[in-house]
């Protein structure tokens, strides 16, 4: 019996050691591949923390005197849930905003801020994140009220950035395939197939919206019908304009599908007890697990949007932070470093990055390790670190609005982004996207002397 217990204890210790080693190796490999992935995971954990605290932190917050002070007894549970979300959101906003300021001016991989802050010391950054997350729980309610209004503005900026990147992405996609189609017509056929698929999806989604959001016996549902119909009118308008101005409608088809999705998302955000929200009535029987999966999908999409926006620095530049290569050697060094894994110079002792960078910069062989490290330090960073963290700061504001119905309504458990404010925010985002796209088509004709490339 003693021997069995001893062997069991040893096995447990070995299993624990192996698990810890595996976790350390996995986290190290993540950092070696891309620091952006590590920051995205940290941001996702912040959203999960905000979600959990919103639904279960009431007993804890009730014991904090400066939070309870001056609060009425009406609907206390929901108010505390909202406060928990705001405080987690504010902590992460401050954390990423400070990181953004600290990264201003980082142009080359040899910068110590790249090595020690952006890529290195994960445990230190985790401790800083925890500290910043807890800090707002010591702030008075007035500070959080100011932050809640600031978060509305920051969330709007985050949505606008998403729109700009979407439009740039589909236009670049179209230009790339059209250029490839000059040598191989199959690229043009592929573009035509994607265009037809996007428009088919748009019309299918519109039909489903007419079916789901005007249920039988619910009355005229004039608001829902108007929003769906206006979506189709916008799609027809900018599709015709795109065909007239560009001779190509693939970008218009992609924007059309996105506009239809925004309309659907707006309508499904209508209150669950609204008679015209037929989809909500169909989902009332859904289990808590199903709703939780839906929430996780929504949160993951926010992380992906922030990741894509933060990584795209060709459209957005913070003065003094853009790391555009100035020479051909530096441009070659950047490409070589990205192919080698995208870590900072000398971090984790990655020899392939240093080797690729050395060959690109010098074109010679046989350099010493110190010369290799010096050459790697000259490689420019592949994206704007300051802008990347700024996007996550704005996204931290957005999750506060997402989980509190844009500050007007506190969400029920297992639900986010429900309420009339959410409906009109998404509707406004749809209109803004359509108008912005039409502006990109009209601006070159209205201002022929300006370069819009």
Looking at this protein, list some descriptive labels.
453 residues; 2 domains
Describe the structure in your own words.
The chain has 453 residues and is mostly helical. It folds into two domains: 1-27; 34-323 and 381-453, no CATH class. It is built from 18 helices and no strands. The chain starts with a helix and ends in a 7-residue tail after the last helix. Mean pLDDT is 75; it is low at 1-33, 318-331, 333-358 and 360-365.
Summarize the structure.
It is found in: Membrane. The protein is mainly alpha-helical and about 450 residues long.
Work out the strand percent. Answer: under 5%
Please state the CA-atom Rg, rounded to the nearest Å.
26 Å
Question: Which range best describes the helical content: under 10%, 10-25%, 25-40%, 40-55%, 55-70% or over 70%?
Answer: over 70%
Output the number of helix runs. Answer: 18
- What number of structural domains do the residues give? 2
Count of strand segments: 0
Q: How many strands, which pairing sense, and closed or not: the largest β-sheet?
A: none
Regions with little confidence, pLDDT below 50 for 5+ residues? 1-33, 318-331, 333-358, 360-365
Mean pLDDT: 75
The coarse overall form would be: flat
Q: Helix and strand string, N-terminal first?
A: HHHHHHHHHHHHHHHHHH
Distance between the termini: 78 Å
Secondary structure elements and their pairing?
Blueprint: H1 2-33, H2 35-56, H3 58-61, H4 65-68, H5 76-102, H6 112-119, H7 122-134, H8 141-181, H9 186-212, H10 222-246, H11 250-268, H12 278-283, H13 288-311, H14 328-339, H15 351-362, H16 369-377, H17 385-403, H18 420-446
Helix pairs in contact: 1-2, 2-5, 2-13, 2-17, 5-7, 5-8, 5-17, 8-9, 8-11, 8-13, 8-17, 8-18, 9-10, 9-11, 10-11, 10-18, 11-18, 13-17, 14-15, 15-16
């Amino acid at each position: 019996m003693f021997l069995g217990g001893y062997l069991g204890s040893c096995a447990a210790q070995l299993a624990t050691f192996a698990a810890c080693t595996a976790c350390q190796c996995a986290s190290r490999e993540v950092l070696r591949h891309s620091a952006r992935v590590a920051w995205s995971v940290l941001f996702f954990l912040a959203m999960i923390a905000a979600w959990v605290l919103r639904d279960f932190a009431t007993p804890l917050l009730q014991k904090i005197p400066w939070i309870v002070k001056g609060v009425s007894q009406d609907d206390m549970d929901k108010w505390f849930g909202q406060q928990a979300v705001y405080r987690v959101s504010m902590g992460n906003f401050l954390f990423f905003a400070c990181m953004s300021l600290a990264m201003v001016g980082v142009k080359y991989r040899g910068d110590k801020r790249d090595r020690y802050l952006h890529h290195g010391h994960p445990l230190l950054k985790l401790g800083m994140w925890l500290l910043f997350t807890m800090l707002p729980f010591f702030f008075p309610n007035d500070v959080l009220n100011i932050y809640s209004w600031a978060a509305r503005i920051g969330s709007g900026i985050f949505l606008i950035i998403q729109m700009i990147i979407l439009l740039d992405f589909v236009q670049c996609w179209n230009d790339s395939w059209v250029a490839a189609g000059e040598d191989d017509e199959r690229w043009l056929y592929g573009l035509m197939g994607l265009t037809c698929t996007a428009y088919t999806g748009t019309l299918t989604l519109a039909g489903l919206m007419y079916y789901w959001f005007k249920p039988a016996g619910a009355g005229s549902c004039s608001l829902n019908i108007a929003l769906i119909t206006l979506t189709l009118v916008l799609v027809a308008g900018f599709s015709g304009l795109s065909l007239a101005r560009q001779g190509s409608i693939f970008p218009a088809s992609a924007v059309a599908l996105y506009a239809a999705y925004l309309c659907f998302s707006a309508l499904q955000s209508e209150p669950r007890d609204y008679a015209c929200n037929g989809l909500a009535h169909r989902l009332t029987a859904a289990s808590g697990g199903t709703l939780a999966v839906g929430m996780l999908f929504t949160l993951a999409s926010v992380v992906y949007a922030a990741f894509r926006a933060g990584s795209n620095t060709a459209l957005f530049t913070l003065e003094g932070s853009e790391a555009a290569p100035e020479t051909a050697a530096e441009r070659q060094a950047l490409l070589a470093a990205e192919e080698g894994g995208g870590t900072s110079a000398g971090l984790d002792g990655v020899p392939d990055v240093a080797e690729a960078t050395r060959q690109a910069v010098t074109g010679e062989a046989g350099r010493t390790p110190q010369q290799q490290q010096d050459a790697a330090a000259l490689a420019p960073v592949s994206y704007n670190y300051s802008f990347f963290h700024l996007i996550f700061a704005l996204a931290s504001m957005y999750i506060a609005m997402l989980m509190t119905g844009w500050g007007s309504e506190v969400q029920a458990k297992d639900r986010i982004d429900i309420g009339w404010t959410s409906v009109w925010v998404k509707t406004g985002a749809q209109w803004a996207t359509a108008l912005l796209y039409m502006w990109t088509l009209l601006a070159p004709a209205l201002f022929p002397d300006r370069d819009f490339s």
